[in-house]
From TrEMBL, chain A:
<keyword id="KW-0813">Transport</keyword>
<dbReference type="Pfam" id="PF00005">
    <property type="entry name" value="ABC_tran"/>
</dbReference>
<dbReference type="InterPro" id="IPR004606">
    <property type="entry name" value="Mop_domain"/>
</dbReference>
<dbReference type="InterPro" id="IPR011868">
    <property type="entry name" value="ModC_ABC_ATP-bd"/>
</dbReference>
<protein>
    <submittedName>
        <fullName>Molybdenum ABC transporter ATP-binding protein</fullName>
    </submittedName>
</protein>
<dbReference type="InterPro" id="IPR003593">
    <property type="entry name" value="AAA+_ATPase"/>
</dbReference>
<feature type="domain" description="ABC transporter">
    <location>
        <begin position="1"/>
        <end position="233"/>
    </location>
</feature>
<dbReference type="InterPro" id="IPR005116">
    <property type="entry name" value="Transp-assoc_OB_typ1"/>
</dbReference>
<keyword id="KW-0500">Molybdenum</keyword>
From TrEMBL, chain B:
<dbReference type="InterPro" id="IPR035906">
    <property type="entry name" value="MetI-like_sf"/>
</dbReference>
<keyword id="KW-1133">Transmembrane helix</keyword>
<keyword id="KW-0813">Transport</keyword>
<feature type="transmembrane region" description="Helical">
    <location>
        <begin position="45"/>
        <end position="66"/>
    </location>
</feature>
<protein>
    <recommendedName>
        <fullName>Molybdenum transport system permease</fullName>
    </recommendedName>
</protein>
<keyword id="KW-0472">Membrane</keyword>
<dbReference type="InterPro" id="IPR011867">
    <property type="entry name" value="ModB_ABC"/>
</dbReference>
<keyword id="KW-0997">Cell inner membrane</keyword>
<feature type="transmembrane region" description="Helical">
    <location>
        <begin position="132"/>
        <end position="154"/>
    </location>
</feature>
Length: 367, 227
């Protein structure tokens, strides 16, 4: 399955967007504050809004080309769209909603309905009407309906934003499952750092209708400006201790311990560490409760009000520490200095468990 | 003419009126709900006209247009073999025209209540416009359609002014419920019969309004997606 290539300029109301990016198979987050043009770009890709100029190509198929006068209607673009609000058809049962693309859209039936129903935990709800479902269940149906449209591109427009915290937590594992098994480009619009850290393989950061940066979640999400910097570390589970339900993750050289029940040995994980949870020592210490002492090199020290934010190189990954200016001066921290980052195991959060895609297994978009 | 015959004739006239008025009423409601075009205000006014014009004036207009000498009347007679003058078909035409505004309004409201986002969603799922209409728009607008049809039927059943002006008061042909009541009230000693027909009218009207209200509630429920 090939990449989605977007190079468009257009307006929605009196708001202009201009975006150029590439989304290979996997989850690409369109990330940015409200009003950055994320949803507008998604609508333009879906064919629900029209760019003024540019091109949209999905795996060699031209969906839109202003110069060549190509503008495929939404129904012919081979997309699946999950909207902010579930947009389920209120007069149709869950099952009829899920299979709408087949009986009304005449899309090919490649994927097993039962498989998607199981993936999203909808077995018990098939005969119900949308109005009798909870918000979380409705959004799961909407996700399943988009998957069963046999999309070549999956577009998700803040699918969790209309839900409360609890419902979000309920759906995130399902989205993670979708993200892990997908073989097609998935564009996931969000302004929530947590969601992006958990789901995205790549991030396209948008601001005021333009692409500000493109990179990995670790690169884009880390410097959060006036907020707290967050490090995203990726590694493989190299050891588990069932007695304490802790896991050791190999970050490529250094290892880090965290409390995480149920992590599979050998599984790839993405971990999240906040700058405020990282202390700095000049050498290793004995007799500490802190489980993780990571040897790093100081890359830069940036003042942030009364504190400083220190960027640490940990192998090829980056960690951030936020300490007072006083401490930074007392330890004479500057670029190139070798230090030990102290991180409590309880401060290391699991952001995402990434299942490696097995070759030959039918994923989303199959074949 | 027995009372049963009068009621049956009225039902036939009203049913024919609604069946033929419904498709154009739906089309007009669609235009008013979904399209912005020059003359939209004029169309809106034209549709409302039978509601505010003296029915006798509407009936006279129909007589001029569709009567034996009227241009449209002759056209219909020549090409379709359809005569309106002094026939039950004329009574149906008059009833249909008078009921038209009552048909359009609820259908238009229910079409406006259909979430366009659902139609977009259907399009992303591969459905063609016609399919979207029959699988999403029409089912969701159905309660409005029912409400309009029932209300229009009740109106057609009781139409008087336009009917008597256009096709006169001919027992067995154009003498529908209200015309029969009127005739009975004119003749001495027929008041009990008139009262019986009035009672029937009240029951029919009440039933129609109740059904229409119930369908209207379904529209409101459908529009916010809760049952």
């Amino acid at each position: 399955m090939d990449a989605l290539e977007v190079d468009i300029a257009g307006r929605a109301g009196n708001f202009a967007v201009e975006a150029r990016f590439r989304a290979p198979p996997g989850v690409t987050a369109l990330y940015g504050p409200s009003g950055a043009g994320k949803s507008t770009i998604l609508k333009m890709i879906a064919g629900l809004a029209r760019p003024q100029s540019g091109r949209i190509v999905a795996g060699g198929r031209v969906l839109f080309d202003a110069r060549a006068g190509i503008d495929l209607p939404a129904r012919a673009r081979g997309i699946g769209f999950v909207f902010q609000e579930d947009r389920l058809f209120p007069h149709l049962s869950v099952h009829r909603n899920l299979t709408y693309a087949r009986w009304a859209g005449r899309r090919a039936a490649r994927r097993d309905v039962a498989e998607v129903v199981a993936l999203l935990g909808l077995e018990a709800h098939l005969d119900r009407l949308p109005a009798t479902l909870s918000g979380g269940e409705r959004q799961r149906v909407a996700i399943g309906r988009a998957l069963l449209a046999e999309p070549e591109i999956l577009l998700m427009d803040e699918p969790l934003s209309s839900l409360d915290r609890q419902r979000r937590a309920e759906i995130l594992p399902y989205l993670e499952a979708v993200a892990n098994e997908t073989r097609i480009p998935v564009l996931y619009v969000s302004h929530e750092t947590d969601e992006v850290a958990r789901l995205a393989d790549r991030v396209v950061a948008l601001e005021a209708g333009r692409v500000r940066a493109v990179g990995t979640p670790a690169q884009i999400l880390a410097p959060s400006g006036d907020g707290e910097a967050v490090a995203l570390l990726e590694g493989r589970v190299s050891g588990i201790d069932p007695r304490y339900e802790t896991a050791t993750v190999d970050l490529g050289g250094a290892t880090v311990e965290l409390g995480a029940p149920g992590l599979p040995l050998g599984g790839r994980v993405r971990l999240k560490v906040r700058a405020g949870d990282v202390a700095i020592a000049t050498h290793r210490h004995e007799g500490l409760s802190i489980r993780n002492q990571l040897e790093c090199t100081v890359e830069q020290v940036v003042p942030r009000g009364t504190a400083v934010e220190i960027t640490l190189a940990l192998g090829r990954q980056r960690l951030f520490s936020r300490i007072t200016r006083q401490s930074a001066e007392a330890l004479a921290l500057g670029p190139g200095r070798r230090v030990v980052a102290l991180v409590k195991a309880v401060s290391v959060e699991q952001a995402r468990l990434m299942r490696p895609v097995e070759v030959g297994k039918t994923g989303i978009g199959g074949s | 003419m027995s009372e049963v015959d009068i009621i049956l004739l009225s039902a036939k006239v009203a049913l024919a009126a609604i069946l033929f008025a419904l498709p154009p009423a739906f089309a007009v409601a669609w235009l008013l709900a979904r399209r912005r075009f020059a003359g939209r205000g004029l169309l809106q006014a034209l549709v409302t006209l039978p509601l505010v014009l003296p029915p006798v004036a509407t009936g006279y207009g129909l007589l001029l247009l569709f009567g034996g000498q009227g241009p449209l009347g002759r056209l219909m007679e020549n090409f379709l073999g359809l005569t309106f003058a002094f026939r039950w078909t004329g009574a149906a035409l008059a009833a249909g025209v008078m009921a038209f505004p009552l048909l359009v309004r609820p259908i238009r409201l229910s079409l406006e209540a259909v979430d366009r986002g659902l139609e977009d969603a259907a399009a992303t799922l591969g459905a063609r416009r016609v399919t979207v209409f029959f699988t999403v728009t029409l089912p969701l607008a159905l309660p409005g359609l029912v409400a309009g049809a029932v209300l229009g039927f009740a109106k057609a059943l009781g139409e008087f002014g336009a009917t008597i002006t256009f096709v006169s008061n001919i027992p067995g042909e154009t003498q529908t419920l209200s015309l029969a009541i009127y005739a009975l009230l004119q003749s001495p000693g027929a008041e009990p019969a008139a009262l019986r027909l009035i009672l029937v009218s009240v029951l029919l009207a009440l039933g129609a309004v109740l059904v229409s209200e119930w369908a209207g509630r379904l529209v409101r429920r459908g529009s916010d997606g809760r049952a």
